[in-house]
Design brief:
This protein is an alpha/beta fold. It has helices at about 5-25, 60-65, 95-100, 105-115, 135-145, 185-195, 210-220, 225-240, 260, 265-270, 350-360, 380-395, and strands at about 75-80, 150-155, 200-205, 245-250, 280, 295, 300, 320-325, 365-370, 400-405, 415, 425-430, 435-440, 450-455, 465-470, 475, 475-480, 485-490, 500-505. Helix 5 packs across helix 12.
Length: about 500
């Protein structure tokens, strides 16, 4: 037949999709993931009565555990959500749950029926999760160039698919046996260690539809078949496979008390006897709603480097080091093809604001990317990461190795600190030299002769010095009318953007 080049390409793309679907269909009858669809499984069982938060146990020994000294210098990491859900790549990583439990005619269900047919099941996507273009060394290089100090890949999400060779505990539902037929988590671990990028593990103990878990759920958690036969063996497997991991992030505990999950006993062993014992930190997304740890004005999930949930930050300086986990794509952790506008992604300015504010408020930022099913990091993620890296290449000393400057408490800065970025300045302080960094996220207006007006620093002529990190130059300053500092900034340099840092030494309130 005769057709255009474009039509020919489209035809062969269609042929490729049909072939892939037929392949997946042919292997659909093999022994695979043992699951039971139960849409109540992600919430407390009907009729289940939680006596009190005492069922969570005493987490004081975890929350108040002294953090390893190195971890307070870990300000920036990259979260990676990549798995079977990257094949439909529609909606978010809860795709399977949304198809089954989102109500008749929900957008994920309509998409799946239209694209793959009404008889398609989620496990069939695993064979289309090919990862043929996955290059662990390139991923690590990209993250290092972004200025990241650690990487936190999802080892297993709520769909139960394991990204390592979990053939003993999750047969035919892991990346080594299905789809890529590669132990992609181990490849990333080895590449990270080889390139001096600290490695962490995200592990969802909960699985929506695992048949053992569903039975335990239906038994009001009076049985623990799922924990005994899967969760505990997988935890041990991961710790022994990746002994150099510095971060253990457990998720999926909101629908059952810790008397079921046994995380306190598990963490006792991790901290005392595991191969990770002398260096690991746990960022646990645990605790039933209302059972949490109050730090400052907010309630944080249980752990020694706790998060406040997805996309939650402190909003002010707090005494306990915390984790701010957020995404570059606004609405999804995994790559979502249905979000295809620039407005669906945070701007570089917003990402820099999040990094700076998190640091000023005593936290570490873990910024998420969602690779494609074939193992590529979409260009918009690469571009955002490169932007952050270029900013950190100049201004890294205002982030790495710093702590909140308590003279700027409680807000950590000046201006409307909870909104980016007009007239906004944040402060950090070096943990070693005591230098204070004023990070302006809005360049001074030319109508004010580019004068940066700082209210918080108490400067003294002949003692206080101001240095511009962009070029290392000494800055001229005068006493401000309100008792602070007025710093004479040069006209903005072409190409400088997102944030401008002044290093201050010799302050009266250093």
């Amino acid at each position: 037949f005769c057709c255009s080049t474009t039509s020919t390409m489209a035809f062969w793309q269609w042929v490729g999709l049909v072939a892939a679907i037929m392949t997946a269909s042919c292997v659909a009858n093999r022994p695979a993931y043992d699951y039971t669809i139960d849409c109540t499984s992600s919430s407390l069982p009907k009729g289940y009565v939680a006596d009190s938060c005492a069922q969570e146990g005493d987490w004081t020994k975890i929350i108040d555990r002294p953090l390893p000294s190195y971890y307070a210098d870990m300000k920036f990491g990259i979260f990676i959500h990549w798995g079977v859900y990257s094949v439909p790549s529609f909606g978010n990583e809860w795709f399977w749950h949304n198809v089954e439990c989102g109500g008749t005619g929900n957008k994920e269900q309509v998409f799946q029926n239209r694209t793959y047919g009404p008889n398609w099941t989620y496990p069939q996507y695993a064979d289309l999760f090919t990862a043929e273009l996955f290059d662990a060394d390139f991923w690590v290089k990209t993250l290092k160039n972004a200025g990241a100090q650690y990487v936190l890949p999802v080892g297993k999400h709520h769909d139960g698919f394991c990204m390592w060779d979990a053939s003993d505990t999750s047969p035919n539902w892991n990346a080594k046996q299905v789809g890529p037929q590669r132990d992609v988590l181990t490849e990333l671990y080895n590449a990270s260690l080889a390139n001096d990028l600290a490695f962490g593990i995200y592990y969802s103990q909960f699985e929506w539809f695992d048949s053992m878990y569903v039975r335990d759920h239906r038994n009001n958690f009076t049985t623990n078949e799922f924990v005994t036969k899967k969760v505990i063996p997988q935890r041990l497997d991961l710790v022994n496979r990746y002994p150099e991991a510095v971060l253990w992030h457990t998720d999926g505990g909101w629908m059952a008390p810790d008397t079921y999950w046994g995380n306190l006993d598990w963490l006792d062993w991790v901290y005392a006897k595991s191969p990770m014992a002398d260096h690991v930190v746990t960022c646990n997304s645990l605790g039933r709603p209302g059972c949490c740890h109050k730090v400052g004005p907010k309630c944080w999930e249980l752990g020694d480097a706790p998060s406040g949930g997805d996309r939650t930050t402190a909003g002010e300086i707090i005494p306990h080091y915390y984790t701010n986990q957020m995404t570059i794509q606004r609405s999804s952790w995994s790559w979502d093809r249905s979000e295809n506008g620039l407005d669906d992604f945070f701007t570089t300015q917003e990402l820099i604001y999040t990094l700076v504010s998190t640091t000023a408020w005593n936290g570490t930022l873990v910024m998420n990317i969602g690779p494609t099913f074939d193992g590529l990091i979409p260009p918009i993620f690469q571009q955002r990461l490169a932007d952050v890296g270029s900013w950190l290449a100049i201004n890294n000393e205002s982030i790495y190795g710093t702590e909140p400057w308590l003279s700027a408490a409680p807000s950590g800065g000046e201006g409307d600190v909870k909104n980016c970025c007009a007239g906004l300045v944040f402060y950090t302080k070096s943990r070693t030299t005591g230098a204070v960094y004023a990070i302006a996220l809005d360049y001074p207006n030319h109508h004010d002769n580019f004068t940066l007006k700082l209210k918080t620093p108490k400067a003294k002529q002949g003692q206080t010095k101001a240095e511009y990190l962009l070029n290392g130059g000494a800055m001229v300053w005068t006493a401000g009318a309100d008792g602070g500092m007025d710093i004479a900034m040069p006209p903005p340099v072409i190409g400088s953007q997102w944030g401008w840092v002044i290093k201050l030494t010799g302050l009266e309130n250093q």
